[in-house]
Design goal:
This protein is an alpha/beta fold. The protein contains 14 helices and 15 strands. The strands form 3 sheets. Strands 7-8-6-5-4-3-2-1-9 form a 9-stranded mixed beta sheet, with helices on both faces. The two termini are about 25 Å apart. The protein binds iron/sulfur cluster.
Length: about 375
């Protein structure tokens, strides 16, 4: 095992586009967090001196819970596993939770990296997304406080492809972000996920779903601006300076093993994928009562191959065809050649790497290379 993920399933407000698991009811917060500590202890049983290189507090909104809880999880992980001395320990935080006191407490707890859910520097956009924070929170002050706090690294999230977003607006967002001197940026094109408030609004014709061509132009501008600013495009949605790439997320894309704790969290041990129930009440009652709260499946060689294609092609390192469980070239050589000839795919020995043009179609290309049993 290399990565430990803790899913903190609470948010102050529901963002309209979000399909992560969370609850805005905080009543059961203590019981859920206690259940997570129990799950962590139970799952660690037998893993003995397993090494942990990264710990990631995701959600939900981890910055919503007391810093003492974060510290207790880290201490527990250190007691249960062999956590590397230089482990990357990330906390996702929302701008409205940033105070100098909290930053100090997180740092003292062992957090080494803050991932800030900025999303936009514009008031109208934050309102439209249903975010709990406003531009005052997302402003220079909170980001500057993180930069000053002395974490090993930090990153901000931005969303593009919003309805009627112009290139000028996106450029302005990137300029503000770059002015903050961030060492890492995660930028996501808005997608309308099923069963979200946004999907409901789109279905009723209340909002427009956004424009694919405009989003594609904004992705080009994003790549261009980050290149000029010296940030490496190391994964479709992620840009970082040397030494600031997310080690935790990179391990997902490389197929490294990880343990996920908390409602909806996923785990993977190389062959078996397990996922916990996405319901806080059912999770805590099952953990407390010692009954089942997760399902699992053993991945077939073709499922493993296809997952590695999907995640690997999204990265700057691409995918090593010689390292896949099944040989994709046996059945899909013509597809590879076709994408290569159209300037979307490069071949470096047995490694396939997307070009800038190919990055617009990463998932489509990966799916065209999928193999069946
Ligand atoms: S804060 Fe994050 S997890 Fe919570 S609803 Fe908004 S996008 Fe989803």
């Amino acid at each position: 095992m290399s990565g430990l993920y803790l899913h903190i399933p609470f948010c102050r407000k529901a963002c309209t586009y979000c399909d992560f698991h969370f609850s805005t009811s905080l009543d059961a917060q203590d019981r859920v967090l206690d259940a997570m500590r129990k799950e962590l202890a139970d799952r660690a049983g037998g893993s003995g001196d397993a090494a942990v290189g990264t710990i990631y507090f995701g959600g939900g909104t981890p910055s919503l819970i007391p810093a003492a809880r974060i510290a207790a999880f880290i201490q527990q992980a250190r007691a249960l596993f062999r956590v590397d001395a230089d482990a990357e320990i990330t906390l996702e935080a929302n701008p409205d939770d940033i105070t100098p006191e909290r930053l100090d407490a997180w740092k003292a707890a062992g957090i080494t990296r803050i991932s800030l859910g900025t999303q936009s520097f514009r008031e109208d956009r934050l309102k439209w997304m249903g975010r709990a924070h406003n531009t005052a929170h997302a402003s220079r002050a909170s980001i500057a406080a993180i930069a000053r706090a002395g974490f090993a690294s930090w990153t901000i999230d931005l969303i593009y492809g919003l309805p009627e977003m112009t290139l000028a607006e996106w450029d302005e967002q990137l300029t503000i972000a770059l002015d903050h001197g961030m060492p890492h940026l995660s930028a996501y094109g808005l997608t309308v996920e099923p069963r979200t408030a946004l999907a409901h609004q789109v279905a009723k014709g209340l909002v427009s779903p956004g424009d694919d061509e405009a989003q594609s132009a904004q992705f080009d501008r994003l790549m261009e601006r980050m290149k000029v600013a010296g940030l490496t495009h190391y994964e479709i949605s992620n840009f970082g300076r040397e030494g600031h790439f997310s080690r935790h997320n990179t391990s997902y894309w490389n197929g490294t093993h990880y343990l996920g704790i908390g409602p909806s969290a996923h785990s993977f041990n190389g062959n078996v994928r397990r996922w916990n129930v996405s319901n806080n009440q059912r999770y805590l009652v099952s953990v407390e009562g010692g009954t089942a709260f997760s399902e699992m499946e053993t991945l077939t060689p073709s499922q493993r191959t296809n997952e590695l294609l999907l995640t690997g092609l999204r990265t700057q390192w691409g995918v090593d065809l010689d390292a896949l469980p099944l040989d994709v070239r046996m059945v899909n050589e013509r597809t590879i050649v076709s994408y290569h000839d159209r300037g979307m795919l490069e071949r470096h020995g047995a490694r396939l790497v997307l070009t800038e043009r190919g990055r617009h179609f990463a998932d489509r290309i990966a799916m065209d290379l999928f193999v069946t049993e």
